[in-house]
Write a structure and sequence with these properties.
The protein has 468 residues and is mostly helical. It has a domain at 389-466. It has helices at residues 3-16, 22-31, 33-40, 51-57, 60-63, 67-80, 84-96, 108-120, 125-133, 136-141, 155-162, 178-187, 232-240, 243-257, 275-287, 292-301, 303-306, 316-327, 337-346, 369-383, 389-399, 407-417, 425-436, 448-460, and strands spanning 169-170, 173-174, 191-193, 209-211, 221-223, 226-228, 404-405, 441-442.
Length: 468
């Protein structure tokens, strides 16, 4: 197989998963790009996580009564799942269809929401929105349990339109009016949750979705130009067939999986940077009856995706999970994962607890002087640890090249093992000088493991390594 095959496969696995070590990239490249895409798009063909076994070693994950335990379990899943795209799509929807621990009746509700994202998030957007409208975590988070016939609360109706489906506007115009927000809120009256049974004495029971017909406004409503005795399902039926919804889903998929674009608040007056790509995704949205898997298939097999290597700044979750997968750590739920998971928070992404209902801004907004130091320190510490199995594997592969390596072989070998990374000419020149300054690079010497580790640390400290 060619270096181009490995490079393309590394690109795919960074976007459709959280990266992969070189041996996995080689195996997938041998299988073929299109075959790998189809396997990723069919997560049910791969074994699920064995949660019952996980719970034996991390019993604090069982109750799901706190934020940190849930963050730790999800990080473990992202590192070890045989269904990488399933976990990636859960992360994607968590960043778009936002709930937060800071306003959560019971943390387990968010775990159940993530399960919905895993099972429904690659199916129909229509079904996903209907599931979200009945999700107890969302009903509580956006106060729909406080919205009553004759006394509506607009929070859910507003965010459903603004942040979860249509967006404020596109092509310089608005996608909905204030009256549409009110009419949507009226349609969802009576959509509430049952009271959650207290924790004691038998343990916490999660709340359940409930429809209360006595509290539902069953009078005529006019929404996005259509009139009828609408309920919540009718509102979603109208939403998903709007061109603005196709644009909304397409732009989010592009920004998350392809290349950093302007942030959501600018979408109304800022066209997509690649309108042709967005149009392909919009067309597939309608052709496939709103199917996310079909849109992802178009995306991953397109030239504009294949040509978008290193066009995205890695999120904190991608940085931490990808690095731990590379070095082969925490393949087992051992002690220490809790503190390792905290690095995602320290880099600016407090999983399950976003700053607002808008979620996190992405791209270059992930990076500031504080979070940059956290990234470099974390990645350098991990790849510089020669006791990690993944780092040992890299050293072994480079040792097999021959008894003596040139500076070019050391630099290029490390770049390949990190995921076929590419460097600017000046950066590469400085790394070659660093490698040559070490003198003869003998693979059988005691110094060789540290020479490799030093080079890996130098690469992950570059600007280029911030990108995926």
């Amino acid at each position: 197989m060619s270096d181009q095959d490995i490079s393309l496969m590394a690109h795919l696995m960074r976007r459709a998963g959280f990266g992969a070590p070189l041996e996995e990239l080689q195996a997938r490249a041998a299988k073929g790009y299109d075959a790998t895409v189809e396997e990723l798009l069919d997560p049910e063909s791969q074994p699920p996580m064995e949660r019952d076994i996980m719970m034996r070693y991390k019993t604090d994950w069982l109750s799901q009564a706190g934020l940190e335990g849930q963050q730790e379990e999800w990080t473990f899943r992202m590192i070890n799942s045989k269904r990488p795209l399933q976990e990636k799509i859960a992360l994607f929807w968590h960043c778009v269809l936002v709930t937060g621990h800071a306003k959560c009746e019971y943390p387990r509700q968010q775990f159940l929401e993530l399960e919905m994202f895993r099972t429904t998030g690659m199916n129909s957007f229509h079904d996903l929105l209907k599931g979200l409208a009945r999700d107890p975590a969302m009903v509580f988070y956006l106060d729909n349990c406080m919205s009553h016939k004759g006394a509506i609360n607009e929070n859910w109706g507003r965010e459903l339109l603004e942040l979860f489906s249509l967006g404020v506007g596109m092509d310089g115009g608005f996608n909905y009016s204030e009256d549409d927000v009110k009419e949507a809120a009226r349609a969802f009256t009576g959509w509430t949750v049952t009271n959650s049974i207290p924790r004691y004495p038998y343990g916490k029971y999660e709340a359940k979705f409930m429809f209360d017909p006595r509290d539902h406004d069953d009078e005529e409503k006019t929404f996005l130009g259509e009139t009828g005795n609408f309920d919540g399902d009718d509102i979603i039926d109208i939403i998903v067939k709007q061109p603005a919804t196709a644009r909304f889903v397409a732009r989010h998929l592009y920004n998350f999986f392809v290349a950093d674009d302007v942030q959501v608040p600018a979408w109304k007056d800022t066209p997509p940077q690649d309108m042709a790509a967005i149009k392909e995704l919009e067309d597939e949205y309608f052709r496939s009856n709103y199917n996310i898997t079909s849109m992802l298939r178009v995306l991953f097999k397109s030239d504009w995706f294949k040509n978008a290597k290193f066009a995205k700044v890695k999120s904190p979750a991608e940085t931490v999970v990808g690095t731990l997968k590379l070095v082969g750590d925490f393949k087992f739920p051992r002690p220490g994962l809790d503190m390792m998971t905290m690095n995602i928070r320290f880099m600016g992404q407090d999983l399950l607890n976003p700053p607002t209902v808008e979620g996190w801004h992405t791209g270059r907004e992930w990076i500031d002087s504080g979070t940059l130091v956290e990234r470099i320190n974390f990645t350098a510490d991990q790849v510089g640890n020669t006791s990690h199995t993944g780092v040992k594997d890299i050293i072994s592969r480079l040792s097999s090249v021959g008894p003596v390596l040139s500076a070019e072989q050391l630099v290029d070998g490390c770049l390949e093992n990190l995921g076929a990374y590419q460097l600017a000419d000046e950066t590469r020149k400085q790394l070659l000088e660093l490698a040559a300054g070490e003198g003869e690079i003998r693979t059988d010497s005691e110094a060789f493991p540290n020479q490799v580790a030093t080079m890996l640390q130098s690469i992950v400290a570059t600007t280029e390594y911030l990108f995926a």
